[in-house]
Design a protein that fits this description.
Elements (H helix, E strand, L loop, with lengths): L6 E5 L4 H12 L3 E6 L3 H13 L4 E5 L5 H15 L4 E4 L14 H29 L3 E6 L15 H18 L4 E8 L14 H10 L12 H8 L10 E4 L9
Parallel strand pairs: 1-2, 1-4, 2-3, 4-5, 5-6, 6-7
Helix pairs in contact: 1-2, 1-7, 3-4, 4-5
InterPro entries: NAD(P)-bd_dom_sf (IPR036291), SDR_fam (IPR002347)
Pfam families: adh_short_C2 (PF13561)
Organism: Aquisalinus luteolus
């Protein structure tokens, strides 16, 4: 039970990677609070799984693009769970679109959710951890796209590079408070974000062939790495970027 008795907050916890991390944390003994935007059914499923693991779980609805959501999420979770030990900033969007006719509203919404949303959520979580005075772990879900480009992701890849950079800078800013900050960089993970893109059999076959492990990732593949970074097993790990991509990034030939 690597997270026994700890309070873990996860944004975007109603589906995909966030849901898998929330459930995985509960199975390691953590009490869990999730933030989610619109999927009530998905949020309830997460909470059901958290409670089946014997842990306490709450859900707080709100749009991470609104800075007030971060304050409300952390405040509500702190009251319900007794504090914040681990904060996982995961919420993100990626509406695929060509570069030359990219709508302004698509760019701005992606930046607001992926980068500014992460910034304000991490800041709120860090403030609570500093006030508590017992350290903590902050994990942000960046992406392999922080390191490589994507033809239909020109609005998305800069935000994920920004999230990676945010973890590097906060690791420096918060180290004196014994708060560790690290980034997870998933490769191609099958979630709602890319389900339409991967529905093309040829695209799917190509992505699988690019991955040395021979398959696309599943949300549960991120739970273990997140739990490691959240736990005392990673007590001297901060400012790190952990690729979870089946080897895709290094497969250049």
């Amino acid at each position: 039970m690597l997270l026994d008795g700890r309070s873990v907050l996860v944004t975007g916890g109603s589906a995909g990677i966030g849901q898998a991390i929330a459930i995985g944390a509960a199975r390691q003994g953590a009490n869990v609070a999730i933030n989610y935007h619109g999927d009530d059914e998905g949020a309830e499923h997460t909470l059901d799984q958290v409670r089946q693991a014997g842990s306490k779980g709450i859900a707080v609805k709100g749009d991470v693009a609104d800075p007030k959501t971060a304050e409300e999420f952390v405040s509500t979770a702190t009251k319900a769970l007794g504090g914040v030990d681990v904060f996982v900033s995961n919420a993100g969007i990626c509406p695929f679109h060509a570069f030359l006719d990219m709508p302004q509203e698509t760019v701005e919404r992606t930046v607001q959710v992926n980068l500014l949303g992460a910034y304000y959520m991490v800041q709120a979580g860090a403030r609570q951890m500093v006030e508590q005075g017992r350290g903590g772990s902050i994990i942000a879900v960046s992406s392999i796209s922080a390191l490589v480009g994507g033809e239909f992701q020109t609005h998305y890849t800069p935000t994920k590079a920004g999230v990676l950079s945010l973890m590097q800078s906060t690791a420096i800013a918060l180290g004196k408070h014994q708060i560790r900050c690290n980034a997870l960089l998933p490769g191609t993970i099958e979630t709602d974000i890319n389900r339409d893109d991967l529905s093309d059999p040829e695209k799917r076959k190509y992505m699988e062939a690019r991955t040395p492990l021979g398959r696309l990732g599943e949300p549960e593949d991120l739970a273990g790495p997140a739990i490691f970074l959240a736990s005392d097993m990673a007590r001297y790990v901060t400012g790190a970027a952990l690729l979870v991509d089946g080897g895709m990034y290094v497969n250049l030939q």
